[in-house]
Amino acid sequence: MGIDKLHRPGPGDVALVRRAQRSLALSSRHKDLMRYLERDSFQNVAAMLVGRYMPRSAAKRLEISEVFRELYSAWFVLAPISNRAQGYWRPWWSPGVVMSWLRTEVNRFQRMCLGRLSFDWATAQVAPGAPASRIEDAAFIAHMEALLDHALGDTLRAGFARYVLGGLVWREKADAALARARAEQAGFMWNEQELWFLAQKPFLADGVVWADLREAPADMLSWSVWVADGKLHAQLSQPVVQRLKDSVKAVLATDALPEHKLRRINAAAKTFHHWARYAFDAQQQAQELEAWVWRRVNRHIVQNTPPLAACYFNLRQAPRDTQLHFGRASYLLDRGVTDEAWLNIWNPRR
Questions:
Q1: Is the pLDDT confidence value at 226 over 90?
Q2: Contact 274, 231 (CB under 8 A)
Q3: How far apart are CA 212 and CA 79, in angstroms?
Q4: Do 314 and 290 contact (CB within 8 A), yes or no?
Q5: 269 to each of 107, 151, 159, 243, 303, how far by Cα in Å?
Q6: How many Cβ atoms are within 10 Å of 24's Cβ, its own excluded?
Q7: How many angstroms separate the CA atoms of 283 and 291, rounded?
Q8: Backbone phi, then psi, for 70, in 5-degree steps?
C-alpha cells in the first residue's frame, strides 16, 4: 500500500481496527497475525497516524513515512498482546502511573532498594519473546525480526521501533523477572528500555544493578528519585533540565520567525512539564526554570513581538498532578473510549 493513502482512511477503519484489537486481546493463542497486519483497515489507520504525527514527512511522501506506517501496523497487532504482560508500562499509561508505582512501593511497602536491568537492543531478537507472548505465526515473527533493523540509534524512528517491539522482544526476560520478583516479594515494572525491581534489600539476579535510594539519588526515566525519612522524593534529573536549557538556547540562535521560535520553545517546555507535573519535588525546579526561560523569551521574542506573550507556555502556571494513578489495563477493550482518545495513545513520542 503506497503513500497515496496517507490521508484517505476508509470509512469505519478505526472501528474495524479496534474490534480486531479486542479479538487479539482476548485470544489465548495467536496463529495467523499476518492477516491482521495486512488488512486494509490496519494499513489505512496506520497511514492516517503517520499523517497525524509526522505531517511534513507524510506531505512530502518521504521514505520514512513508509517505515512508520509499517511500524504502526505492527503496533496495532502487538499492543493488545503486550497488554497481557504483567508489570508492562503500557503505551496509554502516563508517567504518573510509574511515579505512583514508585510511591506505593517505597512509602507503603518500604521497598527502598532499586534494582534495574537494561535491555541490549544490539543483540535483541524476536524469537525468544514470541512463545512467551503466545505468538505462533512464523511469517509474522520473521516480519518483526526485519523491523528490528530500525531499532538501533538515537533517532525518532529508532526510539519508536523500540517502543513498538519492546513488549514482544523482552517478554521472556520480563516474565522470568516477574517470577523472581514474586519469589523475593519485590515490586516489578518494565518498559522497552529496562526493567525495575523495588525491594527491601537487594537480591542476586544476573545483570541487575542495585542502588539504595536512602544513600543517594538515582536517575530513572526523566526523574531523579531518592528516599528521605522513609518517603520517596522525585524531581527532574539534571540531564533533562540541561536539555531544556540547551533547546531554548539553540532555538534563539536560529534565524526563524518569532512565532516559530516560540512554538519550539513551548514544545520543549511542555516536554519537560510532561514529566515534571507528576514529580512532587519539581515545583521549585519549574519556578527557577520558568524565570530562566522567560528572561530569554522576553528579551529575544516578546519585546519585539508583544502579542506573542499570550502564546507563551508558563511552567510556573502549568498544572501539577500528584494524585496516585493506576493504569487502565482494559483501555483497548473499553468501548467507552472515544475514537479520538484512542487515536491519541499512538503518539510515537512517549
A1: yes
A2: no
A3: 34
A4: yes
A5: 30, 27, 20, 10, 20
A6: 19
A7: 13
A8: -60, -40
Confidence of residue 95 (pLDDT cuts 50, 70, 90): very high
What per-residue confidence (pLDDT) applies to 170?
97
Q: What's phi and psi for 187, nearest 5 deg?
A: -75, 155
| Of the candidates 201, 169, 206, 165, the residue with the CA atom closest to the CA atom of residue 186 | 201
- Report the DSSP beta bridge partners of residue 273: none
Q: Which residues contact 146 (CB under 8 A, 6 or more apart)?
A: none
pLDDT, tens digit, 9 for 90 and up, residues 298-336 = 999 999 999 999 999 999 999 999 899 987 766 788 888
- Distance CA(329)–CA(325), nearest Å, equals 12
pLDDT in tens, 165-210: 999 999 999 999 999 999 999 999 999 999 999 999 999 999 999 9
According to the model, what pLDDT value does residue 5 have?
46
SS3 per residue for the chain: CCHHHCCCCCCCHHHHHHHHHHHHHHCCCECCCHHHHCCHHHHHHHHHHHHHHCHHHHHCCCHHHHHHHHHHHHHHHHHHHHCCCCCECCCCCCHHHHHHHHHHHHHHCCCCEEEEEECCHHHCCCCCHHHHCCECCHHHHHHHHHHHHHCCCCCHHHHHHHHHHHHHHCHHHHHHHHHHHHHHCCEEEECCCEEEEEECCCCCCCCCEEEECCCCCEEECCEEEEEECCEEEEEECHHHHHHHHHHHHHHHCCCCCHHHHHHHHHHHHHHHHHHHCCCCCCHHHHHHHHHHHHHHHHHHHHCCCHHHHHHCCCCCCCCCCCCCCCCCCCCCCCCCCCHHHHHHCCCCCC
